[in-house]
Amino acid sequence: MAMNDSVNILNSAYLAVEYIDSFLPDNPLQQPFKNAWNYMLDNYTKFQIATWGSLIVHEVSYFLLCVPGFVFQFIPYMQKYKIQQDKPETWEKQWKCFKTLLFNHFFIQLPLICGTYYFTEYFNIPYEWELMPRWYVLVAQCFGCAVIEDAWHYFLHRLLHHKRIYKYIHKVHHEFV
Predict the structure, then answer these.
(1) pTM, full prediction
(2) Considering its fold, how many domains does the chain have in total?
(3) Which of 42, 60, 86, 106 is the most buried (most CB within 10 A)?
(4) CA–CA gap between residue 113 and residue 54 (Å, rounded)
(5) Per-residue pLDDT reduced to its tens digit, 11-36
(6) Which element (helix H / strand E) includes 158?
C-alpha cells in the first residue's frame, strides 16, 4: 500500500512537471550545448572526458566560486563579517593556502577523479546527448548530491576533530583562516 502511494505521488509529480514544461519556451542555449557536447564526444575518448573534463570543470568552478570570498576578505568594510576577528589575513598566508590547495587538488583529488571513468562504465552511465535526463531530473539529482555531500562533509569533519587523529591529520585545516 505505501509503495503504491509513493509511486502515485511520483507519477503525479512527473506529470505536473511535464505539464509545466510544455508551457516553457525552448531553451535557446540547448542547440549550441548539444553541438559542443557532440563535438566533444567525436574528438575525445570517454576516459579523457571523464578524467580530464571532470578535472577542468572541478578546478574552474572551484576557483571561480572562491573568488568573491578571496576578494571580500581584503575589503575593509567586509571585516565586520569575519568570524575570526583576531586573525588578520596576509598575502603570505593566502599564498601558502593556495599552494596547499593545489597540492590537495592534484595529488589527492585527481587520483579520485581518475576513477570517474570506471564509475560511469560500471554503472553504465551514458554519454550520448539523446540519453541525458531531462532538466528537472538533473536539478533533482544535483540537489540530492548537494545534500548528501554536505551531510558527509559535516560528519567527516566532526570525526576529524576526534582527539586521536586531530593533531596528525586535521590540524592543517585549521591553520588557515
Answers:
(1) 0.68
(2) 2
(3) 106
(4) 7
(5) 887 788 788 878 878 778 889 999 99
(6) helix 135-160
